[in-house]
Amino acid sequence: MYKNNYIIPIIVTIFYCVISITYSKNLIDDPSQIPLKKEPYTSGERLRILGDFNFDGLEDMALSDDISTYGTGGIGFTVYLKDSNTQFYKVGRIGGSPHTIAIERHYKYPRIWTYWHMSAASGILSYCEITDTGLSVPYGIDVYPGDGGTKIGNGILKAVTTNSDAILHIQKSKTVDNIIQWVDE
To answer: Taking the model in full, what pTM does it have?
Structure first.
């Protein structure tokens, strides 16, 4: 039983925190203005997080999957860095609750911190570095901040989520006739 408690967090960390197997700096126009295809059982809406993730003075973005996939643990996001005033490039994927994402100005590479809620008491707190070749593999720990959690778990999660070095804005899309408007969350 003890071993099995660590299998799920490891799998979730690997799968949801970062999928940046391939990296290319193909510049694209603002991906948040491309409507999602409405499928059965999906909303066609998503979240975006805006902020200067790599501290270059340009507003970057994390764009979520369809919000109908937002579960108890969180949701997947594709991270885009802005290369110019109008163009972006994809650097990888992260996952977690949008309200627990933080950016750290680290001495070598900026870090994106995320928290993936696993149960009422536990979750995975991890970070990925924004390197010259995309997002790094995630580095994470199990923490117990929730109901029945620990003081240290609560303290670690609070320290990360309330001390972001970048101001982040969370917005939700509202799409009408393939025109997307973004509203602050």
So the answer is: 0.85
HSE value, Cβ hemisphere, 13 Å, CA-based, for 48 = 22
**Among 104, 10, 90, residue whose Cα is nearest residue 51:** 104
- Rounded to 10 degrees, the C-alpha dihedral 91/18/181/86 comes to -10
Q: Tens digit of pLDDT for each residue in 110-167?
A: 999 999 988 878 899 999 999 999 999 999 999 998 777 899 999 999 999 999 999 9
Residues 6+ apart with CB under 8 A from 170: 47, 48, 49, 98, 99, 184, 185
Q: Are the C-beta atoms of 64 and 47 separated by less than 8 Å? A: yes
12, 61, 91 from 21: Cα distances, Å: 16, 19, 10
The answer to whether residues 110 and 51 touch, using CB atoms and an 8 Å cutoff, is no
How remote is the C-alpha of 164 from its chain's centroid? 13
The 3-state DSSP class for residue 165 equals: coil
Nearest alpha-carbon partner for 137 in 43, 4, 20: 20
Q: What is the DSSP letter of 2?
A: T
What's the count of helices (H) and strands (E) in the chain, helices before strands? 2, 11
List the Cα angle 6/147/144 in 5-degree steps.
Answer: 35
Which H or E run includes 174?
A: strand 169-176
User: Taking a C-beta distance cutoff of 8 angstroms, is the pair 89, 28 a contact?
Assistant: yes
CA 124 to chain centre: 13
